[in-house]
Amino acid sequence: MAGRLGIIAGGGDLPRQVAETCRQGGRSCFVIALEGQGAEAWLSSDVPHAVFRLGAAGAMLDRLRAEGVTQIVLAGGVRRPSLSDLRPDWYATRFFARLGLKALGDDGLLRAVASLLEEEGFRVVGIQTLIADLLMPSGVLTQAVPDEQALLDINHGLTVAHALGAVDVGQAVVVQAGLVLGVEAIEGTDALIARCALLKREGPGPVLVKRAKPGQDRRLDLPTIGPDTIAACIAAGFAGIAAEAGGTLFVGRDDAVRAADRMGLFVTGVAG
Question: How far apart are CA 126 and CA 25, in angstroms?
């Protein structure tokens, strides 16, 4: 039988969904809400939890052990703080010292965090193993379908996203009529979409393409789309979204597809 689950909660709705899945399935869980990342907004007294700043790594681990946690899932986005905001404790300082001077992207840093957690005796699990039907399926999910130009843009976007991910930079690209309007870096997907809304050309709208990084640990930080992504693409005048089937989390799929259908946006799962 699976042991108690620790949910290290960043922003977005995924941490809440994991906690709700545990409640419905009768599984015990404990939430570590990362301070200032947004999880405090949905947490209540009926969800066992504690709030820690990102730099309080030693205290987090002590609390997880005290709560009997054996498995951990990292759920939700985390905005990288400055070193002054991080205020690392002794344990976190030792962790960063062990990394040395390596400039790590998100995937590299998360791999290091997961490795550390497993060294400390916890098992790190992927969110897709906890919530059924969360991964993007293959094929077009909407009434609207990509036309010939959109298919070319999708293929180009997948190539660019692969190169981008290979150097651990980002997971998303926006392409219109063969032109790369923008690539995702530290700003995140929503900011990328908003930026590219100001850059788009006349004619059929741009396409957002998302895929996992080459060799990415599938337990950690998979690319994610959901109703907010759909709304942002509609507001920006995009033609559609293509996301890697089996390699992208699709949160709130039913609501997202209905919203896309109302506005004629296509959503499709593609091979990475």
Answer: 17
